[in-house]
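Okay, any thoughts on this one?
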Amino acid sequence: MKYALKDYQESAVYDLLVAMERARDEYEAAGEYQSVCLTAPTGAGKTVMATAVVERLFHGDPETGSPAIDGATVLWVTDDPSLNVQTLRKMYMASSRLDVGPQLVTIDGSFDAEMLPSGAVSFLNIQKLRRGSLYEQSGTDRRKWSLWDAISNTARHAGGRFIVVIDEAHRGTGNGSDRPTIINRIIGGDPSRGRVAVPMVWGITATPERFHQAMAAARKPSRVQRTVTVDVADVRFSGLVKDVIVLHNPQEGPAADTALTVEAVRTVRAYGARWAAYAAANDEAAPLPILVIQVKAKVSPKDLSDLVASLRESWSELTAEGIVHTFGDWDGVTHGHIPLANGAGVRYVEPHAIQDDDRVRVVLCKEAITTGWDCPRAEVLLSFRTARDATYIAQLLGRIVRTPLARRIDGDETLNTVAVFLPHFDESQVEVVASAFQDGAQSDDIGVSETTTALVTCPKNPEVSEEVWLAATKLPTYTRPAQRIRSNVTRLRKLAHLLAYDDVDQDAPAQANEVILGAMSSRIEALRATGDLQRAVRSATTVHTISTAHNLVTGQSKVTEGRAVRLDPRGVDREFRKAARLWPDQTADEYLARRHRDGMDLVAAKGEIVALTKNADAVPAVEAAAAVYVRELDRRYQRRVDSLPAARRAEYDELREQSASAEETRLILPIAITARPSEKASEDRHHLYASGDRALYPHLANGWEREILDAELAGPDLLGWYRNPPGGRRALRIPYANGSAQAVYPDFMFFHRSRDGELSVSIVDPHGTHFADAVEKLHALAGYAAEHGHLYARVDAVAKGADGRLVRLNLCRPDQRTAVLEVKQAEDIDAVFERCGSLYV
């Protein structure tokens, strides 16, 4: 793959391959028909995950050693030709092994074969199989084989190695009615015409209910169903989708079409300026944001002319080629050029081509891009739909939440938002759209981003000194452990190549190889010293036979020990290949090549690897050595990596997040964050980020938080404070345990000038003792204080005392930390605060 998969994507790919392997085994053993469903929300990267699955089916997995599936054949089915084009293009862009032509094939008029090509993905839209279509015909001068014949013959010949993918599987499979759809006929075959059912179906959808119903309703043949589900929270955590959608609408008076058009233009240009500044600071190409305008279903030529005129008047740099449309037809001219009143026109661009057309800055649409469209550059939506069209708007929102660089922007939180303008909605109707989006519409699961009707950008507070900022960026935080544990050998090699690529350490790959192969050599020499290696090699490369003599006269049998037969070189190679699969990232082949260069016989070297692999401690020992060196390289070069552009730093961050345990890392503070002002919000001074001339930070603070802030803000030695968010790379995260995905995010960090003139830092976390995880949170804070307490003046856990006043435990103090760590159940927490705590104010 050209793209490094996100943690949840890697986990889903692995689970899909396991599900498919089990499905193949069951079909081949018992003839049970199978279906596998990938359920993932919009923005999860379903096509990227599918590409990784296909790559590994066709070519194997070098990291895990899993072999390719000989004769694997994939038919990719949709009800939309444009979606097929887009998917093929995305697969080609994402894959390092799949090429257009030999392995990515569009079924067109030239296709006429008995079976679909093996080792390839064939893309088919169901319109080609409608009654009367050329593709339905067979045995004619024009076609020897129909597409129906090719599909059936492939299913008959390839069996469980033939996979039919139903993309957007909630569409086209019907609702269990007696009349089969074209997709149902592809899946179920047609016994009356000698067409067999497809053994393996793979559905890809955000809403799997209809697909599951169709699979369950198909009684001939019935199917074993398996599902792989991607969690919405994992997608949001990954940074592949925007964090916040800001909904704008008129507060009162008539619908202000022109005014909000001008405001939408101002907003998309502001995004462009922010992207340009970010890109210049980080030495990468700036995405060109797009304004999507959803017009009414029956828009008139005059309305279109007036809209384009408003756009051109408010955006002087906008060219005629910068405005395009995706209407299915216009005045009877399919996909045509739309003439305007002033003699100009709006050109048609197919939806899949918009993302890569740098001329496009405004897209006029109706419904053509509400499903399946992928254009991460679309960051502003202006919809002239009315309130009764809330579902269409909610669906379109799902298409514009993707992040342009496929990652969260840590440097400027405004770039993690999208803006939506709804001139024909009032405040209550906007809430309907927000709810529809967050709860997930029935036709498409798009509940991945937070929606708000107010947002303010807060840059760095100029009143906070650089000394405070420097101290804040040195605070240790921890990554979230990966769902699917990645080999430390693979992580080490990846880190070493990154360091070499970025000219941080050109020798890192060679050094990493020495660590890995050196650890293997050490294990082999240890076995050799005890004589275990020679015995293991003989055992692994020798077959012991048993002879049985049958006396035909007496009917008796006599068993005698046979000869010990040494494996021939081919037999040793087969054993080596089986052993090599247990070593990640082709490590066994690397070791073999080294031993051969050293003059060792290849057969003997293969025997060593086989013997080593049978030693239960060998692979874990090499993995442990690689993990130690990963940490060493990370610490050695952290400062130099921190100085790299954001795009390069992101690769190192993702590598850290692939570990099995939480790893220490840095706190990343952006140049600007977003806040949500409201009538209930407080505005306070001295926060690290602030807005407006008065340098105030708008935020919501509950009763405990308000008391703590009032006490800290009243102190004359306060230099600054930080409201810790509940996630993201700018959050201080303390895991419950090293391998736990759960963590505590302390509410506040305060920065003071101590009595000796030095800057001191304190963590303060209002702690509800009644929560189910109260003990785990306290233990996590105590463990963090034990490890990093020398960096802090206080690590305070705060609770309400019996008299209603706030009580604190400073976990930097060994006695209070010990008392906390001795707590075993939540009922005992209050007693510890009462016995050991002191009043907060």
User: Anything to note?
Assistant: The two ends are 57 Å apart (CA to CA). The CA atoms of residues 4 and 670 lie 24 Å apart. The first strand starts at residue 33 and ends at 39.
